[in-house]
Design goal:
Blueprint: H1 7-33, H2 35-66, H3 70-82, H4 85-91, H5 93-96, H6 99-102, H7 108-113, H8 115-119, H9 126-156, H10 161-188, H11 201-224, H12 236-268, H13 271-278, H14 285-304, H15 307-311, H16 313-339, H17 348-370, H18 380-385
Helix pairs in contact: 1-2, 1-17, 2-3, 2-10, 2-11, 2-16, 2-17, 3-11, 3-17, 9-10, 10-11, 11-12, 11-16, 12-14, 14-16
């Protein structure tokens, strides 16, 4: 079978599907028993896996635009993650039923007491939320469909036309991605707080998604590095060194944007700007901040400065796992304190929603991975990029 997926991965697909089905069944119970806790958990789980797919889309377009050697070994992983966007669009539908539990602009008593929130109701309303969500998903899915279609055409022909098309779309696509994420971030995340706003928030989200997706594909590549399909066509040290450098770059960029935003907001000390951070540095949430500083930046940063760490794929995979776990915590830290700022808040519903959505997403990811060869075929840039 010309595929990265072996018998173990095939079993993993079945297990993932089973976990996903059981998790979604638990989500139904949560919806009935504890809708307030459930919808916070469901938004968290969905946004995390959506971030993996969108981060993969951005990395895929970056690869097509730059023809970086690092991308050929992980391109099928990126494409498989991107292929799950239609599924994620369907899984987002339950969020529409939880708007009153999630957003202050759906609470009449909060609206009556907050003049700023009342002034934003022309934008923050149910029809606008649903329409904008549908539009951004449609844009992401269309871009993904074209890239996947042309990639399949590239595998079937020696013509350079599919390669040219993918590169032509990727340039504008890397602009469209943060623009559409701006609307999604305002609706889905920023409006969880009644007054808060930030002009850099969407960019921070995009970089976080790309960092999480990159850590994810490094973990997968480390597992598949010795496979019959990938082993002969990649140079382990060179490939992991290059992708490790990219991981270092995104780690630094994430930290720069997060710290820059915090510094400017804290210095300005404006109530409607600083409230978001105040909710996340009080009581137990401050220890979550310390965790994120250590394991989403400090530890990975200093380890990735060392050349041997990036050239030994087992060690690089450990760093990527550290970042991946920290990214899960980061998404929860971004969402949960908006609704529960008084103390560190974690429920079993978060675990159930994460496993439910993650199981279905993983099964779809592995299914998509089966459908294509492990490496791109007939890519004219690949032969040039492979080291002698």
């Amino acid at each position: 079978m010309s595929s990265i997926v072996n018998a173990v991965a095939a079993r993993a697909k079945i297990v993932s599907l089973g976990v996903g089905v059981l998790g979604l069944a638990g989500c139904v119970a949560g919806w009935i028993v504890a809708p307030g806790d459930f919808f916070v958990a469901y938004l968290f789980g969905h946004f995390f896996f959506l971030g993996l797919s969108l981060g993969a889309l951005a990395l895929l377009m970056t690869h097509h635009l730059t023809s970086g050697y690092w991308g050929y070994s992980v391109r099928r992983f990126l494409e498989s993650a991107v292929s799950t966007l239609p599924l994620l669009a369907v899984l987002f539908v339950p969020v529409f039923f939880g708007l009153p539990q999630l957003y202050p602009w759906k609470n009449p008593s909060v609206i009556a007491a907050d003049e700023i929130l009342r002034s934003r109701l022309y934008y923050l309303n149910t029809p606008g939320y649903v329409i904008r969500s549908a539009v951004v998903f449609a844009i992401w899915i269309v871009m993904a469909r074209f890239l996947l279609k042309w990639s399949a055409e590239q595998d079937a022909t020696v013509s350079v036309e599919p390669t040219r098309k993918m590169r032509t779309l990727s340039g504008p696509g890397l602009v469209i991605y943060p623009v559409t994420m701006t609307f999604a971030a305002i609706d889905w995340l920023m409006s969880l707080e009644k007054d808060w706003y930030s002009t850099m928030f969407a960019v921070m989200i995009c970089i976080g998604q790309m960092l999480g997706a990159l850590a994810f594909v490094i973990l997968l590549l480390s597992v598949a590095a010795d496979s019959r399909q990938l082993g002969p066509v990649i140079s382990k040290e060179e490939t992991f060194h290059k992708i490790g450098n990219l991981l270092l770059a995104f780690t630094m960029l994430w930290a720069y944007l997060e710290f820059g935003q915090l510094l400017i907001t804290w210095s300005g000390n404006l109530p409607h700007e600083i409230s978001w951070y105040l909710n996340r540095v009080t009581d137990g949430w401050r220890w979550v901040c310390v965790f994120l500083f250590l394991f989403n930046f400090f530890v990975p940063f200093f380890l990735l400065l060392m050349r041997p760490v990036k050239r030994r794929y087992q060690v690089l995979a450990s760093v990527a796992a550290c970042i991946f776990i920290a990214h899960i915590v980061d998404v929860w830290w971004t969402i949960a304190p908006s609704l529960h700022p008084e103390h560190v808040y974690v429920t079993w519903w978060a675990v159930i929603a994460f496993l439910g959505i993650g199981g279905i997403w993983s099964a779809a990811f592995l299914k998509n991975l089966e459908r294509r060869p492990a490496v791109p075929l007939n890519d004219p840039r690949f032969a040039v990029a492979v080291p002698a």
